[in-house]
Amino acid sequence: MKITLISVGKLKEKYLREGIAEYSKRLSRYCSLEMIEVSDEKCPESLSDADKEIIKNKEGDRITSKLKEGTYLITLEIEGKELSSEKLASRIEKVTTGGNSHLTFLIGGSLGLSDNLKRRTDFALSFSKLTFPHQMMKLILLEQIYRSFRIIRNEPYHK
């Protein structure tokens, strides 16, 4: 199984890089993990709605250029469906047993994802109605993917 994680923006914080490295190592026994970062656009504080859309579309074009054909696409969106860890594991298992061995997760920039990417998604996932820094979401997502594999294989993991 292959999992690709595409995110907007470079990860700078050492503590997040260390956590991501740890979960990447843990995931290596369950899947092939590829992480792709695309550059973000500078966002001044006062942007018009039209300017926000332009920025999301530019970032969306960069993401789209990295997407592979035939992958099952899961976007992280505040408006997406909230799942428990068990339900996320079930969805991952269902996708993979349904014949798709490549999952791609998308984490947008500070303004979110473009409408084109939202329309293209196979599943919109929300971790919460709260807003998290997208760099932190990468770590949280990897932990939940790891937890999903442990659940799927009935392996112990703290609750």
UniProtKB/TrEMBL annotation:
Annotated S-adenosyl-L-methionine binding sites: L76, G108, F127, S128, K129, L130, T131, F132
Catalysed transformations (reactions): pseudouridine(1915) in 23S rRNA + S-adenosyl-L-methionine = N(3)-methylpseudouridine(1915) in 23S rRNA + S-adenosyl-L-homocysteine + H(+)
Subcellular location: Cytoplasm
Record keyword rRNA processing present: yes
Top-level taxon: Bacteria
Keywords, ordered alphabetically: Cytoplasm, Methyltransferase, rRNA processing, S-adenosyl-L-methionine, Transferase
Major subcellular site: cytoplasm
InterPro entries assigned: Alpha/beta_knot_MTases, RlmH-like, tRNA_m1G_MTases_N
Gene Ontology terms for molecular function: rRNA (pseudouridine-N3-)-methyltransferase activity
Enzyme class: transferase
Any single GO CC term annotated in Swiss-Prot or TrEMBL for this entry: cytoplasm
The EC number(s) this enzyme carries: 2.1.1.177
NCBIfam families from the UniProt entry: PRK00103.1-3, tRNA_RlmH_YbeA
Role, per record: Specifically methylates the pseudouridine at position 1915 (m3Psi1915) in 23S rRNA.
The family this protein is said to belong to: Belongs to the RNA methyltransferase RlmH family.
Subunit structure, as described in the record: Homodimer.
Protein name: Ribosomal RNA large subunit methyltransferase H
Protein source organism: Spirochaeta isovalerica
Lineage summary: Bacteria, Pseudomonadati, Spirochaetota, Spirochaetia, Spirochaetales
